[in-house]
Write a structure and sequence with these properties.
alpha+beta, 281 residues
Length: 281
Protein backbone atom coordinates (compact mmCIF):
# COMPACT_ATOMS: atom_id res chain seq x y z
CA UNK A 1 0.00 0.00 0.00
CA UNK A 2 1.43 3.20 0.53
CA UNK A 3 -0.46 6.76 1.14
CA UNK A 4 0.49 8.48 1.98
CA UNK A 5 0.61 7.65 4.14
CA UNK A 6 -0.41 9.13 6.52
CA UNK A 7 -0.26 12.73 7.03
CA UNK A 8 1.94 14.52 9.49
CA UNK A 9 -1.01 16.49 10.85
CA UNK A 10 -2.88 13.36 11.90
CA UNK A 11 0.32 12.02 13.46
CA UNK A 12 0.71 15.26 15.38
CA UNK A 13 -2.86 14.88 16.67
CA UNK A 14 -1.93 11.38 17.86
CA UNK A 15 1.09 12.78 19.68
CA UNK A 16 -1.04 15.45 21.35
CA UNK A 17 -3.48 12.84 22.57
CA UNK A 18 -0.90 10.34 23.78
CA UNK A 19 1.68 12.75 25.20
CA UNK A 20 -0.34 15.43 26.97
CA UNK A 21 1.76 17.24 29.50
CA UNK A 22 5.08 16.20 27.97
CA UNK A 23 7.62 18.86 27.04
CA UNK A 24 7.62 20.24 23.46
CA UNK A 25 10.94 18.60 22.57
CA UNK A 26 9.61 15.14 23.38
CA UNK A 27 6.43 15.74 21.38
CA UNK A 28 8.49 16.95 18.41
CA UNK A 29 10.77 13.89 18.67
CA UNK A 30 7.83 11.48 18.80
CA UNK A 31 6.17 13.23 15.85
CA UNK A 32 9.30 12.76 13.72
CA UNK A 33 9.55 9.14 14.89
CA UNK A 34 5.99 8.26 13.85
CA UNK A 35 6.30 10.19 10.57
CA UNK A 36 9.52 8.37 9.67
CA UNK A 37 8.14 4.94 10.62
CA UNK A 38 4.88 5.28 8.70
CA UNK A 39 6.60 6.88 5.70
CA UNK A 40 9.05 3.99 5.50
CA UNK A 41 6.17 1.51 5.65
CA UNK A 42 4.14 3.32 3.04
CA UNK A 43 6.94 4.10 0.64
CA UNK A 44 8.63 0.69 0.67
CA UNK A 45 7.67 -1.54 -2.23
CA UNK A 46 9.14 -4.23 -4.41
CA UNK A 47 8.14 -2.64 -7.68
CA UNK A 48 5.53 -0.30 -9.07
CA UNK A 49 4.40 -2.96 -11.54
CA UNK A 50 0.87 -4.21 -11.04
CA UNK A 51 -0.57 -7.65 -11.61
CA UNK A 52 -2.71 -7.92 -14.73
CA UNK A 53 -6.25 -9.16 -14.55
CA UNK A 54 -9.00 -9.60 -17.13
CA UNK A 55 -12.06 -7.35 -17.25
CA UNK A 56 -15.16 -7.13 -19.47
CA UNK A 57 -14.37 -5.83 -22.95
CA UNK A 58 -16.30 -2.57 -22.43
CA UNK A 59 -14.41 -1.72 -19.20
CA UNK A 60 -11.10 0.21 -19.30
CA UNK A 61 -7.83 -1.41 -18.22
CA UNK A 62 -7.25 0.02 -14.74
CA UNK A 63 -3.65 -1.19 -14.75
CA UNK A 64 -2.77 1.11 -17.63
CA UNK A 65 -4.74 3.95 -16.02
CA UNK A 66 -2.87 3.42 -12.76
CA UNK A 67 0.55 3.58 -14.45
CA UNK A 68 -0.43 6.91 -16.03
CA UNK A 69 -1.84 8.16 -12.72
CA UNK A 70 1.48 7.60 -10.94
CA UNK A 71 3.09 10.07 -13.37
CA UNK A 72 0.25 12.61 -13.52
CA UNK A 73 -0.11 16.17 -12.19
CA UNK A 74 -3.33 17.12 -10.40
CA UNK A 75 -5.06 18.77 -7.44
CA UNK A 76 -6.60 16.68 -4.69
CA UNK A 77 -8.76 16.89 -1.58
CA UNK A 78 -8.07 14.30 1.10
CA UNK A 79 -10.55 13.50 3.86
CA UNK A 80 -9.60 11.23 6.73
CA UNK A 81 -12.33 10.05 9.10
CA UNK A 82 -11.23 8.33 12.31
CA UNK A 83 -13.55 6.71 14.84
CA UNK A 84 -12.83 5.33 18.31
CA UNK A 85 -14.89 3.14 20.63
CA UNK A 86 -16.95 5.74 22.49
CA UNK A 87 -17.27 3.37 25.47
CA UNK A 88 -13.48 3.21 25.91
CA UNK A 89 -12.03 6.36 24.37
CA UNK A 90 -11.62 9.42 26.61
CA UNK A 91 -12.16 12.11 24.00
CA UNK A 92 -14.02 12.93 20.81
CA UNK A 93 -14.88 9.49 19.32
CA UNK A 94 -14.89 10.86 15.76
CA UNK A 95 -12.17 13.00 14.19
CA UNK A 96 -12.29 14.42 10.66
CA UNK A 97 -9.26 15.85 8.90
CA UNK A 98 -9.24 17.50 5.47
CA UNK A 99 -6.19 18.34 3.36
CA UNK A 100 -5.95 20.37 0.15
CA UNK A 101 -3.05 19.32 -2.04
CA UNK A 102 -1.40 19.68 -5.42
CA UNK A 103 1.05 17.40 -7.24
CA UNK A 104 3.37 18.33 -10.09
CA UNK A 105 4.96 15.23 -11.52
CA UNK A 106 7.99 16.55 -13.43
CA UNK A 107 9.93 18.02 -11.79
CA UNK A 108 8.26 16.69 -8.67
CA UNK A 109 6.78 19.06 -6.13
CA UNK A 110 3.75 18.76 -3.90
CA UNK A 111 1.81 20.89 -1.44
CA UNK A 112 -0.22 19.45 1.43
CA UNK A 113 -2.23 21.98 3.45
CA UNK A 114 -4.37 21.03 6.44
CA UNK A 115 -7.63 22.96 6.00
CA UNK A 116 -9.82 21.29 8.62
CA UNK A 117 -9.29 19.34 11.83
CA UNK A 118 -12.27 18.70 14.09
CA UNK A 119 -9.92 18.41 17.09
CA UNK A 120 -7.52 21.32 16.59
CA UNK A 121 -7.30 24.89 15.31
CA UNK A 122 -5.48 24.49 12.01
CA UNK A 123 -4.18 28.09 11.98
CA UNK A 124 -0.38 27.87 11.93
CA UNK A 125 -0.59 24.46 13.59
CA UNK A 126 2.71 22.56 13.61
CA UNK A 127 2.76 20.30 10.57
CA UNK A 128 -0.35 21.89 9.05
CA UNK A 129 1.52 23.06 5.94
CA UNK A 130 3.91 20.74 4.12
CA UNK A 131 5.70 21.04 0.83
CA UNK A 132 7.78 18.45 -0.98
CA UNK A 133 10.15 19.12 -3.84
CA UNK A 134 12.89 17.48 -5.83
CA UNK A 135 16.38 18.94 -5.64
CA UNK A 136 18.76 17.11 -7.95
CA UNK A 137 18.40 13.44 -6.97
CA UNK A 138 17.02 14.15 -3.48
CA UNK A 139 13.48 14.91 -2.29
CA UNK A 140 13.08 17.43 0.52
CA UNK A 141 10.16 18.18 2.81
CA UNK A 142 9.49 21.76 3.92
CA UNK A 143 7.27 21.74 7.03
CA UNK A 144 5.74 24.56 9.08
CA UNK A 145 7.00 24.18 12.64
CA UNK A 146 6.96 26.75 15.47
CA UNK A 147 6.05 29.55 13.08
CA UNK A 148 8.79 28.87 10.53
CA UNK A 149 9.53 26.38 7.79
CA UNK A 150 12.14 23.70 8.37
CA UNK A 151 13.41 21.21 5.80
CA UNK A 152 14.57 17.63 5.86
CA UNK A 153 15.48 14.90 3.39
CA UNK A 154 12.56 12.54 2.79
CA UNK A 155 11.03 10.30 0.15
CA UNK A 156 8.57 11.25 -2.54
CA UNK A 157 5.01 10.87 -1.38
CA UNK A 158 3.14 8.22 -3.30
CA UNK A 159 -0.50 7.09 -3.34
CA UNK A 160 -1.33 4.14 -1.12
CA UNK A 161 -0.86 0.98 -3.14
CA UNK A 162 2.14 2.27 -5.07
CA UNK A 163 4.79 -0.43 -5.25
CA UNK A 164 2.34 -3.20 -4.41
CA UNK A 165 1.38 -6.13 -6.61
CA UNK A 166 -2.26 -5.14 -6.83
CA UNK A 167 -5.00 -7.42 -8.13
CA UNK A 168 -8.19 -5.58 -9.03
CA UNK A 169 -11.79 -6.71 -9.12
CA UNK A 170 -14.29 -4.81 -11.25
CA UNK A 171 -17.35 -3.91 -9.14
CA UNK A 172 -19.60 -2.06 -11.59
CA UNK A 173 -20.72 1.45 -12.47
CA UNK A 174 -21.38 4.12 -9.86
CA UNK A 175 -22.06 7.86 -9.80
CA UNK A 176 -19.67 10.04 -7.78
CA UNK A 177 -20.56 13.71 -7.35
CA UNK A 178 -22.60 13.61 -10.54
CA UNK A 179 -19.87 11.85 -12.53
CA UNK A 180 -20.44 8.40 -14.03
CA UNK A 181 -17.62 6.08 -13.02
CA UNK A 182 -16.29 2.54 -13.17
CA UNK A 183 -15.60 1.16 -9.68
CA UNK A 184 -12.81 -1.29 -8.82
CA UNK A 185 -11.72 -3.03 -5.62
CA UNK A 186 -8.35 -4.29 -4.41
CA UNK A 187 -6.61 -5.17 -1.14
CA UNK A 188 -3.15 -6.17 0.01
CA UNK A 189 -1.48 -7.40 3.20
CA UNK A 190 1.90 -6.37 4.59
CA UNK A 191 3.82 -6.21 7.87
CA UNK A 192 4.81 -3.13 9.87
CA UNK A 193 8.30 -4.62 10.22
CA UNK A 194 9.11 -7.37 7.72
CA UNK A 195 12.11 -8.43 9.78
CA UNK A 196 9.91 -9.70 12.62
CA UNK A 197 8.11 -12.45 10.74
CA UNK A 198 5.26 -12.00 13.22
CA UNK A 199 1.57 -12.06 12.31
CA UNK A 200 0.89 -9.74 15.28
CA UNK A 201 1.95 -6.77 13.19
CA UNK A 202 0.41 -7.74 9.87
CA UNK A 203 -2.22 -5.46 8.40
CA UNK A 204 -4.56 -5.47 5.40
CA UNK A 205 -5.62 -2.38 3.45
CA UNK A 206 -8.86 -2.48 1.46
CA UNK A 207 -9.13 0.01 -1.40
CA UNK A 208 -11.74 1.19 -3.89
CA UNK A 209 -10.95 3.13 -7.08
CA UNK A 210 -13.39 5.17 -9.16
CA UNK A 211 -12.55 5.86 -12.84
CA UNK A 212 -14.27 8.63 -14.81
CA UNK A 213 -16.11 6.96 -17.68
CA UNK A 214 -15.60 9.96 -19.95
CA UNK A 215 -11.84 10.51 -19.73
CA UNK A 216 -10.64 7.43 -17.79
CA UNK A 217 -9.00 9.52 -15.05
CA UNK A 218 -8.98 8.27 -11.46
CA UNK A 219 -11.25 10.68 -9.60
CA UNK A 220 -11.42 8.99 -6.19
CA UNK A 221 -9.54 6.43 -4.10
CA UNK A 222 -10.77 5.14 -0.74
CA UNK A 223 -8.35 3.32 1.59
CA UNK A 224 -9.20 1.64 4.89
CA UNK A 225 -6.14 2.35 7.07
CA UNK A 226 -7.59 1.07 10.35
CA UNK A 227 -5.36 -1.99 10.67
CA UNK A 228 -2.24 -0.17 9.47
CA UNK A 229 -2.46 2.67 11.97
CA UNK A 230 -3.41 0.43 14.89
CA UNK A 231 -0.54 -1.96 14.15
CA UNK A 232 1.92 0.95 13.81
CA UNK A 233 0.86 2.26 17.22
CA UNK A 234 1.11 -1.19 18.78
CA UNK A 235 4.51 -1.84 17.23
CA UNK A 236 5.93 1.56 18.25
CA UNK A 237 4.65 1.27 21.82
CA UNK A 238 5.84 -2.32 22.28
CA UNK A 239 9.32 -1.40 21.03
CA UNK A 240 9.56 1.80 23.10
CA UNK A 241 8.33 0.15 26.32
CA UNK A 242 9.87 -3.29 25.68
CA UNK A 243 6.52 -4.97 26.27
CA UNK A 244 4.92 -8.04 24.78
CA UNK A 245 2.27 -7.59 22.11
CA UNK A 246 -0.44 -8.75 24.54
CA UNK A 247 0.49 -6.23 27.25
CA UNK A 248 0.80 -3.44 24.70
CA UNK A 249 -2.59 -4.25 23.20
CA UNK A 250 -4.20 -4.20 26.64
CA UNK A 251 -2.71 -0.82 27.53
CA UNK A 252 -3.53 0.80 24.17
CA UNK A 253 -7.00 -0.69 23.70
CA UNK A 254 -8.90 2.52 24.64
CA UNK A 255 -6.93 4.47 22.01
CA UNK A 256 -7.16 1.96 19.17
CA UNK A 257 -9.28 2.98 16.21
CA UNK A 258 -12.38 1.14 15.12
CA UNK A 259 -12.42 2.97 11.77
CA UNK A 260 -9.78 4.99 9.93
CA UNK A 261 -10.72 5.66 6.32
CA UNK A 262 -9.00 7.97 3.88
CA UNK A 263 -10.82 9.27 0.79
CA UNK A 264 -9.05 11.34 -1.85
CA UNK A 265 -10.73 13.17 -4.76
CA UNK A 266 -8.50 14.02 -7.74
CA UNK A 267 -9.19 16.80 -10.25
CA UNK A 268 -7.55 19.40 -12.53
CA UNK A 269 -5.45 16.76 -14.26
CA UNK A 270 -2.58 18.31 -16.27
CA UNK A 271 -3.61 21.79 -15.02
CA UNK A 272 -3.05 21.80 -11.25
CA UNK A 273 -2.91 24.91 -9.08
CA UNK A 274 0.51 26.53 -9.16
CA UNK A 275 2.36 27.21 -5.88
CA UNK A 276 5.80 28.22 -4.64
CA UNK A 277 7.97 26.44 -2.08
CA UNK A 278 8.27 28.74 0.98
CA UNK A 279 11.62 30.01 2.16
CA UNK A 280 12.94 27.66 4.80
CA UNK A 281 15.87 26.81 7.01
Amino acid sequence: MYYFIIILSSIYLLILLFFKGENPMKRAFMTCFYFTLISSIILTGCSKDVTRNQFPEDVPDIYQILEEFYNASYDYIETKQTKYDKKLYDGNPEVIIKIQGTVFSEPYKESSILVENSELDVTNQNGSKKYFYQENSAVKACILWDGKYVSQITKRKRPIGYGKDLVFEYIGEEEVKGISTYKYKTEFTDNVDRRLNSSNFEYTILQYYWIDKANHNIIKISSDLTELNNKVNLFSSSQANMQTYEKTYESLLPNLKIQDVQEIYYYNYDNPTEFEIPKHE
